[in-house]
Amino acid sequence: MNEVQRIQQQNAGQPAHHSKLTILMSAALNIANENYELKQQYQEAVENISNRSDRLLHLLDEIEQ
Asked: Which residues contact 22 (CB under 8 A, 6 or more apart)?
């Protein structure tokens, strides 16, 4: 769903004094927050894969010896 529409629906029951700028700023902050969270999740996944790869390499090295 479009972030602007989502914000408008959240504020549907509230007074109409919310300006377009307020709605756009809220949408932009939500998008930025989602982007930040996705980057954090990606970084955690990369670290997890890196750690698992290191462990696998060490196990393979032990088998070779």
From this structure: none
Kindly report, residue by residue over 13-39, the tens digit of the pLDDT. Answer: 666 666 778 888 888 999 999 999 999
From residue 13, alpha-carbon distances to 3, 50, 55 in Å are 17, 48, 54
Helices assigned H by DSSP within 1-65: 3-10, 20-64
Q: How far apart are CA 61 and CA 2, in angstroms?
A: 51
Q: How far apart are CA 46 and CA 64, in angstroms?
A: 27
Q: How far is CA 19 from the centre of its chain?
A: 27
Q: Check: pTM over 0.85? Answer yes or no.
A: no
Q: How far, in Å, CA of 19 to CA of 25, rounded? A: 10
